[in-house]
């Protein structure tokens, strides 16, 4: 520049938008900074750009209104920027002194310039006159010709009609170009190749010109083929100076739209460049051009000629290329020229090379159709020598009404290759993601990589030719793009599924998840495919297509950026999902893939449907035009991607549609598919089957099955069919996960009632979903541990809020629907293990762990899995151990046999006799030495007949290898001779023949012959073979019995299973004797098998040593039982006994599994015969049975019976006794003893049938509870024994009935029971037991009458009621209804009357109580005046409506009834139930503890704990809450606890004062939010008392915590629930036991939360309870005692209340600190005012000047605050020092001050005094 601007611009209005506006805003900001005076900017915008970047960046902005307006004259719609009236108004409003038009819109409109001149607003650009001359392309051509600038042959002027255009075209010669006279930017131009095309082109070009420029004038010129588009950037000042700033090559064009621009042109020498530049200069000078512009030329390389095209009287888009090579900022140059600056004489020099491309929101694959939308991600190109001029920012929306440019990217280099390389690199590292749209970025990258572009020799038609030939727009990776899109669609679906899953958890409901892998239907370029995707890990996916499986690893690098690895290729790509549209940018290509098909054609981008070219019913072929869309004023045809018939037009003409919106549906014709699905091949991407290890794949598939992860149905099916081929290691791995999964949400095993599958604890899953970060606070610790174990399989290490956790829980929940298949798969693995020996013995510990966990997890839900797991455990783990025991026994037997042969026969025989029965096979198999074999046979015979006395043995002479012995025995009818022969089964005939020799006519004694086959038999017809070999009996032969023993071969026991058959000789022949079920007659005699003579019995395979019998009652075939009989010969250790019992249980289980209906077999028994003296105590036997309980679950085992011999208590002689061990559900292990029964076992009675039926449903028959209460047998809790007297109506009289158990006439049993405790006390109660065996214990008149009568009886007897509750509520039947409700109401009334009259009802909930029964429970035990306890057993529940009925009626239920009203989640936390126990027996024991403490009424028990014991040294527990005392005495120490403010553990103090040998029964231990009240029933100095403590340390409050309540349950404070609990404890103890309260009470919590939760009401209930309490109350303040708590515990409330305080305690209306802060504020203020430092500072302030006073006033404010705090502390101490317990004693508020060492003796004496007062009052009342 040679001169500075003469004028000054202050505010410039921008009549443009987007990138153009941003270009000026950036330049103006710099311009203002450079000159030191800001240049204000005003953005004029339309509604579509209201939130755009340029609007935000401008200093001011004015809204022009709608984006498009309608021309009132023509009706045409045009951009608002073209409406000069609207723009004029905005300019006036803006106050701008200049206008910058940018490019497009009004930039070349001379009328707009003249308007600006009229307004006095400077137009930054050329004059209107210049525009008139040059803007009209026709006039411009004429000017060019006038200054010797060559022009292309043309029409010489405008053409107004088609005919004129044809005439000129013919003259010029086709091809020709139609051009808009006012055109620019490639618009209004049409190439015409022949005369036929011209009319349509003329019409289209004219319409576009009119729409774009408001001028429809056209002209015709020759089409120069092979030409290059060159242009000269010019700048001219007002003095006539013209710069030509280099030459640009814009030859890379698509349909005359510039795509790539560069400077300088390639292969044009300097002379030619200079000639072109000079031609441009002459053009400008010819019209006195000012400001900047562009002169365009067409260069024909073949001739070296160039032709003038036009002058753009504005700045052009590609001006930035010139700026890059000249260093001139053309926008700032415009500002300088507009203000009168002069240009230097010489144009700036050109330096280096620059290239520009335009990054647009357009789809190259769709004919570069605009693809606008919201910019969701924008990472602009950057790096050395890279410039990016963007018009949008991330978050902006590219409006469909405007051009689609996102940014221009310019690269500069020292030469062209460097500039190309920089531009390619920058584009590759940039990113632009358009929601619902796409960009041409990949196309630009392909363009820059093209060899012809890199060479630079291209003309203006090259790009169109390349595109027509498919160059740059090929789709080489379409299959891979489809795979990527399928994975992305899966990820989107899965994310949605996770959101829905988590959302459902928020509402407390989990809906079932589909286990099907949904098809993902994708369409690309008319080709449609259906994919199925499974996620194998966070980044690994299997994609199934066309029967192929493609493994794809997809890593997320950003929101849209991905890295994919498929078939050895690793590529980076961009994937943009937008509704049904998935855009994949891969390598050089963009793939716009539509999800879902069915013939639906969707919009590729946002557009307006300009015209619909088809109608419903039309048949179309691929490529037919369906409709014309318009976007950014450009029309684009939408072609049919496939053939068919138009069935629906979804969007009609004029409709605005978004990307992916449906437009038209085309259906197939003649049942042919709408697309050819054979074109795209995915084979190159698929797995290579040869690389897969099938076993590893199967393990992976089965693992995923268990984990609930994605699966292919076919893969699962194949893996399940091959489950038997899994290696041991793989199977162990899978079953370990199965065990974890099945156990995860199962309820407590102790709650299993055997009635079926344990319900899933979905509440725990909901906790994990909704509050993972606090799960340890709100979920059971064992569940948290199981969850961590399970999550480890998903590689989730922390239970904290994360997508990974949600995903894992999602899969865990999905696996719930697979548990059936998982169980079948598990059974398959286990069955394989049973058949195979292929397992690693080194992993036995791991195997045991997995099997035990699997057994525990599956036993209720999947008994088959449990049974198989136990069988595997037995075979692979226990059987080897048993085998080791047998081997050890055989070694002992070998030594004993050796000794027997050496002469110590009797001792050896005695030793052999004690060995377990399985040793018999070993003895029978001795063959090596005949003498040794004879000894073994003698031992075997003696073992078999061990309960008999035998004669001496004689060895018989037999042929080897047969051995035989003779002996005899005496039975009740005489002597029987016994012969035994042993030999191999192959010599069966010889064995029988040898025995037959002794069947002589002269033989006079009864004879028993035993034939023993040594080796295992595989034949199943051994008995028949023996029978066939037996000879005929000689005449006169005495009684002859033949017993044959053999071992049947068995897969599970190589020794085989012992078998026997018996033949009786009579009438000259032998007949087989049935009835021994394969058991030796001697054994059958010992175990009293005759007792089963009313059953048909048969043998079942079992291990050697176990006799398994199937018994079916002859009179009742449904009474089917399995009996496992075993004999115990050694009690020195329990290993043999345990193993034999375990084998018996396993044998029953395996046999039961083979029954058609195993559930009918619920009276099975294990019977053991013990030869030696029985030495085990009942407790030892109980312990042994408890250890075996896991093996007996689900076994249908009625009892274990032992036939034993015990020492008589009087004589010491051995006598026979029968031990009965039973394990009733929810009762426990019971042991009873009886004398041997002389009568046969009867088939199942009606009573027993009911018991068994209840067992099947997990319930207890009421009379079984009665038997538990009256029985004399040992139990695990040693309940008292008692007598039960049943009551019932006889006629109208409710009286004692003497009848067998089970003959109750109603669905309830009532009576009176007396139980005799070990203490000598007798507890009488009235029993009420619901009978669920009839209609689930429903209630109607019969039941309700009896319940009311029982309550009347309890009133009459003055005893409590004990109610075993299980009922479905009021009876529902066709013949009864509301009358049953009336009867239940009558019961309710009687309960209220009974309890309000002081009666006590104790309820044990033993099942599910519904409706009325739940109300009975509540009225009996849950109200303030009630004193009874409510105990919940196992999985019992109290509900108003059962789960199924609740769900059917549309209500909200839980996963089971326990979830609606069980103890763990409902009745325990809300305080409705006092206790939970695992079984009825434990509940009974708890009730007796309650009676012991409740009915003593002041009785004193013996205690060894001294009454005067000093508690000071008692240890203090410091587990939590910030306590740190070593002993209890430190709590009361002024040294360790000044002011009594430190926290301490109240339980430690309570433990210190109570009798150390007394039991503790804690009331309501599970009541949530009431934990800071501790209530114990215990003893103090031998007195049964209710000892209450108020927790004196802060307790952590579970989450969530309301904002209006405390964060912790603070020390010594009563909250609503703890107040309610305290009131109920006091009421419950009234009239039953003295009340002792150890108080540290600061008062009631008064927070808004507590007040809203009835704090006042429950606090008042405490006061009422104290007033109404019957008996002594001892209230001792051990720390502090303030506020409202003082009121409700004042001694004024109850005359029999004695109040004391431990020395040093505090007692006042309020604490010192709050008193000083609230009550004594005036006193505090007065003392502060008189404080010397305050007085002095106030004096200084008064003496200082006004300027200095503010600082001193600030110091005074600080000092006053400091002194106030000090004074408050002083006043607080003074208050506390005054309001001591000593003062309280003086005024009579307390009765005693007690030193800490005297606390226990004082409390004991106070209780004693209170009891004496109570007795005196009682006597006095009676006397009155």
UniProtKB/TrEMBL annotation:
Domain CoA carboxyltransferase C-terminal: 1530-1817
Enzyme Commission number(s) of this protein: 6.3.4.14
SUPFAM superfamilies hit by this protein: ClpP/crotonase, Glutathione synthetase ATP-binding domain-like, PreATP-grasp domain, Rudiment single hybrid motif, Single hybrid motif
Keyword tags: ATP-binding, Biotin, Ligase, Nucleotide-binding
Domain (ATP-grasp): residue spans on this chain: 141-339
Cofactor(s) in the UniProt record: biotin
Recorded coiled-coil stretches: none
InterPro entries: AcCoA_carboxyl_beta, ATP-grasp, BC-like_N, Biotin_carboxylase_complex, Biotin_carboxylation_dom, Biotin_COase_C, Biotin_lipoyl, ClpP/crotonase-like_dom_sf
Domain Lipoyl-binding: 592-667
Top-level taxon of the source organism: Bacteria
CDD domains in the record: biotinyl_domain
GO molecular function: ATP binding; biotin carboxylase activity; metal ion binding
Record-linked PROSITE patterns: ATP_GRASP, BC, BIOTINYL_LIPOYL, COA_CT_CTER, CPSASE_1, CPSASE_2
Biotin carboxylation domain mapped to chain residues: 8-468
PANTHER family registered for this protein in UniProt: BIOTIN CARBOXYLASE (PTHR18866:SF126), CARBOXYLASE:PYRUVATE/ACETYL-COA/PROPIONYL-COA CARBOXYLASE (PTHR18866)
Protein name as it appears in the record: Acetyl-/propionyl-coenzyme A carboxylase alpha chain AccA1
